[in-house]
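Handout for the seminar on molecular recognition.
Each group receives one record of this type.
Step one: identify the two inputs.
Step two: read the structure output and locate the region that could contact adenosine-5'-diphosphate.
Step three: write two sentences on what you found, then compare them with the reference statements printed after the record.
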Amino acid sequence: MNLIFLGAPGAGKGTQAEYISEELNIPTISTGNMLRAAVKAGTDYGLKAKEAMDSGALVSDDIVIGILKDRILEDDCKNGFILDGFPRTVVQAQALDNMGVTIDKVVEINVADEKIQQRLSGRRVCESCGNSYHIDFKPTKVDGVCDACGGKTVIRKDDEPATVLSRLATYHEVTAPLKDYYQAQGKLVTVDGQEEIADTKKLTLEAVKA
Ligand code: ADP
Ligand code: ZN
């Protein structure tokens, strides 16, 4: 099964994608995580992506389409995959269609903007491995220390309040039109992501299995 998880930054699509990934035993592909790894490694495209990412803007379609294309050709994607954070523009969605992959479902995690601002302010990520946490909803066992690798958890630069506002604006402007795009293909399912993470997980699994 090939799935796309769609939603505003901080709607919890990453958390839901990871959960479904375990349930279905298929990998999650997060373009955001791949880009952050590239920035850290100082690769060519990492350097190009860094400025856009820090300011909360999107990285150019060429770059993300390129990395995604290579990634889904890897062996572990043979039985399916979950895309978390890709596509984010209609151009990216068209590129995906042109790669000849069949997307089975597009799961939209829907959360109101006010709630998102509150959630992102509590988000923390591990400097070393990139795992995501939340001070209220998904705390680390030891404050400031990653459960997975023992690295230090920090506030992402693009989670600062002013940057969050511009990421939300970008989402509504260039990413939300993908809802119509996939609705027209009969693939869109919307899950209410306002409630407890456990409730959303249940709804998400139902949506995926329906
Ligand atoms: P979030 O969903 O919380 O905004 P991500 O980790 O998915 O965060 O992405 C972080 C940043 O990486 C984005 O703000 C953007 O700059 C860049 N990025 C990730 N995926 C894409 C994409 N598909 N197209 C363009 N930029 C992307
Ligand atoms: Zn870690």
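Reference statements: The longest strand covers residues 105-110. The longest helix spans residues 161-175.
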